[in-house]
Amino acid sequence: MNNLIEIQVNENQEQTISGRELHMFLGVETPYKKWFDRMCEYGFEEKHDYLVTDIFVPNSNGGRQNQVDHIVKLDMAKELCMLTRNEKGKQARTYFIEVERDWNSPEKVMARALLIANKQIDTLKLENTVQRQVISEFKPIKEYVDTILSSEDTVTITQIAADYGLSAKALNKILNEQGLIRKVGGQWVLYSNHMQKGYTKSETIDVTRSDGSIKVVMNTKWTQKGRLKIHELLTLLGLKANMDKTAA
Questions:
Q1: Largest CA distance in the chain
Q2: Any idea what the Cα angle at residue 70 is, between residues 46 and 37, rounded to 5°?
Q3: CA distance linking residue 130 with residue 8, whole number of Å
Q4: Using CA atoms, how far apart are residues 130 and 112, in angstroms rounded to an integer?
Q5: Where do the Antirepressor protein C-terminal domain residues begin and end (predicted)?
Q6: DSSP designation for 218
Q7: Residue pLDDT, tens place only, 189-203
Q8: At 100, is the secondary structure helix, strand, or coil?
Q9: Domain segments of the chain: what residues?
Q10: pLDDT digits over 72-98, tens only?
Q11: DSSP string computed for 45-95
């Protein structure tokens, strides 16, 4: 089959041609832009029948200049040929019909189907790889969270800090900066917006002073829910629990 006008295939597996190439082949004397605009008055729609694109062509100064072109679907191209009403139009239309006939042959249809299937397989493989990576990245976090949720005991801030290789003082400073706790009368307490969420359990204990007198102090421990809240805050800051580091 003679290649009168170059045929392209878009991402939707549709055959297209250049509007300017068709205009040149048909020998239309009207300037391309005026001709194409007039043809569109017959009801052709952008994005349905054609797309607007840019091409670069040589100019008189030896450089290159921008020109507007159109990516025209074959059905529209056949109608444009009919509207031209000359021998070139008839020749081009016959050519497009032959191209379509070949394109829709069982062999070509099967080849395109296999191509699409292979692309879908490649896409699924990529998605599967990404999912495996995400799962592997979150596995250490899940292991530590599972450890938290499996326990019903309360823990001290010192115990939680040790999970991250921190001191209790350093962890309290971080939690204060993150707006979780504040110091009142020498004691760390939750900010009011975090109270009533079950993060801590407090009790009073008697402490004997050096002079033998008794001082009542509050002893605050963190619940597993509170421990998980701390874990979420530290994770956002890029701090990993020792268990996560080992698993990674």
A1: 118
A2: 65
A3: 33
A4: 27
A5: 133-235
A6: E
A7: 889 898 888 888 877
A8: helix
A9: 8-104, 145-247
A10: 999 999 999 999 989 999 999 999 999
A11: -BTTTEEEEEEEEE-TTSSEEEEEEEEEEHHHHHHHHHHH-SHHHHHHHHH
pLDDT of 122 reads 76
According to DSSP, the residues that pair with 57 across neighbouring strands are 65
By CB atoms closer than 10 A (0-12, 13-18, 19+), residue 89 is buried
Q: Specify the amino acid at residue 85.
A: R
pLDDT by residue (tens digit) across 94-150? 999 999 988 888 888 887 788 777 778 877 777 776 666 554 444 555 566 666 555
Place of tokens 């509007």: 19
**Rg from Cα positions in the chain:** 37
164: Cβ contacts below 8 Å, ≥ 6 apart: 171, 234, 239, 240, 241, 242
- Whole-prediction pTM value? 0.46
Q: What residues have CB less than 8 Å from 74, skipping those under 6 apart?
A: 7, 14, 15, 16, 17, 96, 99, 100
